[in-house]
Amino acid sequence: MNILRAEELSLGYRNKKVVEQFSTSIQQGSLIGMVGPNGSGKTTLLRALSGLIKPFGGQVFVGEQNLFLLTPRKRAQLIGWVPQRERLAWPLTVREVISLGRAPHRGWLLPMTKTDQAVIDDVIHNSDLDSLEDRRMDELSGGEFQRVLIARALTQEPRVLLLDEPTTNLDIHYQIQVMDLIRQLVSCGGITVLMVIHDLNIAARYCDGLILLHRGKQICAGSPVDVLTPENLEAVFNVKTNLYRDPWGFWAVSARNGTGQYGREEPK
Ligand SMILES: Nc1ncnc2c1ncn2[C@@H]1O[C@H](COP(=O)(O)OP(=O)(O)OP(=O)(O)O)[C@@H](O)[C@H]1O
Description:
Mean pLDDT: 91
Helix content: 25-40%
Strand order of the largest sheet: 6-7-8-3-9-10
Bound molecules: adenosine-5'-triphosphate
Distance between the termini: 56 Å
CATH topology: Rossmann fold
């Protein structure tokens, strides 16, 4: 079943068009990555798919429901959105911020139910945030902050999760941990994830499918192996690459240096 469908979306800011005639259908329970150069329109697309910006033209459907006809609360029950950055207005603690994810499921100012508390406890634990839950958000490192924003979206229990570069600020341990958690939610929880990702190795390793964007247009879409070809990547990024299986058996992309000369020496 297709859970998220965009039909001929045209997007932009004021009178500047940024994305043209974008269409896609995303199957429930899949993890799809959106890749492409800086400024190609990836974040703009995610913002439109979360209902944050209105398109110049086209439609978005979540299941059978027209996204732009839903109330903000109903939209938040269906779609979770984790931005690249966020400025918090108040000095809240980690637990308080994660608890905000339950808001779409509660009446205005109603107390948390046992279910709310259980979801929050589970997410804090699974996101390895137990030791940080009483810390203030303005005291966190960039990576810790990002993990809290992801956790807040998970407590929302959305059907579709939109993530904008979820691993950018994370060290290699938390890159793997966050991506394993997302993969598990997709595989076991039936949640659908669309994420913008610059790291092509993470894209190749974790995603069921990829969408390649360039200058606001979809260049191709398909399995990571079909999308991350040397031809596609050279056309879009102007870099020579190689798609290969790494020693662990995962698909990986390596780019050649400009001169192809340095970085090959044995360590002294
Ligand atoms: N609020 C805004 N007002 C006007 N133009 C904007 C706004 N936000 C983004 N743009 C422009 O829209 C284009 C696409 O930006 P977008 O952030 O969607 O690209 P992106 O593919 O996510 O880039 P990156 O990989 O660098 O994050 C860029 O030219 C950008 O300058």
